[in-house]
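INFO  loader      accepted 1 record
INFO  loader      residues=147
INFO  predictor   begin
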Amino acid sequence: MIFNLIHITMKKILILFALAALPWTTFAQQQFASTTGVASDVSKAMALFDWSETTFDFGKIAVSKPATHEFTFINRGVAPLLISSVQASCGCTVAEFSKDPIPPGSAGFVRATYNALRIGIFTKTITINANTDIGVVRLVVTGEVVD
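INFO  predictor   done
INFO  writer      dumping tokens
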């Protein structure tokens, strides 16, 4: 008798937990939609990066000759796009970027300069944090430093 009572009570508790979890699964689906590029109500009111490219290969560059590439983007969102930080993966790469808010429809940039002091193949990343639906973007520069 007590076992049946405990069993019924456990079923009720499990049902309550399942019902309580429904709002969380809906929220998770909205978050997933915004990270996969499917527009959600939240992302419609934000800034949105539209990069011309996110990777660049310098090819072969001479040792001790810095190489620079400018990545460009257009803000395809409805709010001004503001880059809060840009960080290179190491001290050998310096990044400059649009510091003023970029209005919807306008262009901005991130300029990466690699200081080619070591011979060999390299891959460096530049991480951008902004008020966009995805928040963080990683740009990649690659190449080979030759003598």
